[in-house]
Amino acid sequence: MAKVKKSPWVLHYDGASCNGCDIEVLACLTPVYDAERFGIVNTGDPMQADILLLTGGINAQCQEVVKQIYEQMPRPKVVVAVGTCACTGGVFKEAYNILGGADTTVPVDIYVPGCAARPQSIIDGIVKAVALFQQRSDEHDKGIVNGSREGES
Amino acid sequence: MSSVIAIVCFLVLAPFLGGFLDGLDRKISARMQGRIGPPVLQPFYDVHKLIHKQTIVVNKAQTFLMLTYMAVQLFVGVLFFAGSDILMCFFLLSTGATFLVFAGSVTHSPLSTLGTNRELLQMMAYEPAVLLACLGFYLAPPDHTFVVSELIQTPVSAILYLPGFFVAFVFILTIKMRKSPFDLATAHHAHQEVVKGITTELGAKNFAIYTITEWYEKVFLLAVVALFVVNANPLSYIAAVVVALAVWFLEILIDNTCARVKWDVLLKVTWVVTLLAAGVNMLILMLVF
Which residue from A5, A62, A76 is spatially nearest to A54, judged by alpha carbons? Predict the structure, then answer.
């Protein structure tokens, strides 16, 4: 089995967030938290990413973008919803333009609640995502795709 | 026989050395920024993972072009360590880089195309210094030759005759190693520039090929730096390794202390440094020796 868990590359996409969670996501990469010590790289390229980090609710405009980014990522992949808005839609849930949380558009694996989610909990969420990433990679090597929800679009 | 050993050593050890230097680079960069940084073996974990990801190819020609890019860059190192013609090495190096440019442009992605255009611009910026460096090795007395196996047998180090060429070459090394402030086409580290520049549309596996090729290329470039120092005295090899590592450390320092510049600044600064350092050095060599 390939040990892929030592190299999780994260793609961060901001849906319709207030930027609070985005600032906390970037704070994870600063010297205080230094997520890179786990091999985490904040990449901008979906084709080379492993973990999709979604912040903010999903609206009609960004839904297609999120779908496209998710589909461009090579298997195995994991989706993490960061912040209350990405988990459920948050305070914007009833707004006319908001469709809801990230799981209205792509299959979310890990939910990190908080408004804004603290860097500690974001890193904790990513570490959980990394374990799932390793599990999916093992399944991917065995040729199992349906064991996870990766086949869906 | 010794050239065969050198070729085999290059082909087998260069990716490990390049990857290890890359890991140290990330560690040192992290320490410079007050972070702990990833493990030194992180680049190997990254490539290992990239190879195990699903294959995604935007255009079928991509894989062929990337493999050709890798093969040509490997051949450059083989020629160099076999003690062949240094002019041929650098011509081939540019040819190999052209295949990367093709791979970046076949997808028609706007991000990748922008990165590709910047890569061509960077090539335009560094090419004069590279060609002048070759010329410098030829002009350096006593024996006028382009052949590496004869260049390493000179009685005195080439750097004594070619300080200007050395400065120009180290300057353009920042472009070749994709370090800030000259990382316009694509950044060496996780820094993003037009998403991932020329490598934006490379799928995980092709990106692994790209990374390994970069390791080979890095070892070749540092070997050229070492060639400035090596002479007939065996002790000079130690000095050459020290100088190559010092240059490598200088690049990391520059990377961590400079902000990315715009393309016109890149072109002007590089050409001015090349003309002033290498050009003046060449004039002196041609007039005096």
Answer: A62
Residue in A45, A135, A145 to test binding to B, most B beta-carbons within 10 Å: A45
Name the residue among A36, A45, A72 with its Cβ closest to that of B37: A36
Q: List pLDDT tens digits, range B168-179.
A: 999 999 999 888
Residue B67 to chain A, least CA–CA distance (Å): 18
Q: What is the CATH number of domain A9-142?
A: 3.40.50.12280
Between B163-176 and B280-288, two packed helices, what is the crossing angle to 10 degrees? 150
Q: How many domains does chain B have?
A: 1
| Mean pLDDT per 10-residue interval, chain A, length 153 residues | 81 90 90 88 88 92 92 91 91 89 91 91 92 88 60 43
Contact residues, chain B, for A28 at CB < 8 Å? none
Extents of the domains making up chain A: 9-142
Work out the burial of residue A110: count CB atoms within 10 Å of its CB; fewer than 13 is exposed, 13-18 middle, 19 or more buried: buried
